[in-house]
Amino acid sequence: MAQRDEFSLIEDIRRRAVVSDRTLVGIGDDAALLSVTGTDGVLVTLDVLTEGVHFDLEVSRPQAVGRKALAVNLSDIAAMAGRPTAAVVGLVLPRDRGARLADSLMEGMFDIAAEFGVDLIGGDTNTCDGLLVVSVTLLGEPSERGVVKRSGARAGDWVLVTGALGGSFQGRHLTFQPRVQEALALHAAADLHAMIDLSDGLASDARHLARESGVGLIIDARAVPIHEDVDGSLTDEARLERALCDGEDFELLLTVSEEDGRRLLERPPIEIHLSQIGEVTGEPGCRIRRDGGRIEPLPTGGWVHGFD
Ligand code: ADP
Ligand code: MG
Hints:
binds magnesium ion, 6-stranded mixed beta sheet, 8 helices, 308 residues, 15 strands, alpha+beta, binds adenosine-5'-diphosphate
């Protein structure tokens, strides 16, 4: 069992990182919002992908890895309802196979950068006698309606999710479409109170949103949209578990007033499916309403990096 995990480390760093009023949103959300004179601020997010943890080059083409390295960051800018603008790329290349890898990897990254109108503006390249590590810092700008944080959920809100969840390791974790346009369209159509992208898994990410908002959530088991990538031969309970805990869905979890929720479901401003999967409660803690009405704690699954 690992001595520590990423979240306890991040909490310590967060406590120590005293910031000035230039930092409008700091550690604890999907992206930071930095004040820049004469603008509404700039969104900043960074994700690091490591060979053997986030991808396996025996299975995945380097192009797909390069695409994913930018796509996961696009998903974080989407989660703030921002528009991505420019990326800075850090590469640590294995000395024995770096040349071929780098060309293919960047091909995949350039493709998705063009698709989302992102400028590649810089980076750094190192080598090592080890595994491939790709780090992407992505900048973005808030839309006219400002950013949507994790911390804005209110008791009585509806909890909505885009798309369907679970089974992403069948391949979708590399090919997913970041919900940038969807987030902007939802934000333009309704007053989104809180939003997060599903990277660690619904069970884990719902907790992050609830904790940052100081509220609780009840998820309706029957309403959770299960992706067709989840093995159909599993029991209903096991399939639900996959949707809650697999992670890397990169869909959006958001909360809105009941009134806005009804409106969005009646006339969705996006093509991908939008479902109501629960509601926000004043009582802290995340729970699940099982088929038949029994209420239990939300499973604690989901991906966490642990270390000694
Ligand atoms: P996400 O899954 O949306 O990428 P993370 O769980 O990686 O978010 O990070 C949660 C928050 O902690 C973010 O605000 C992120 O910027 C911050 N964070 C993560 N690692 C570090 C670190 N080593 N130093 C400072 N902040 C960090
Ligand atoms: Mg995120």
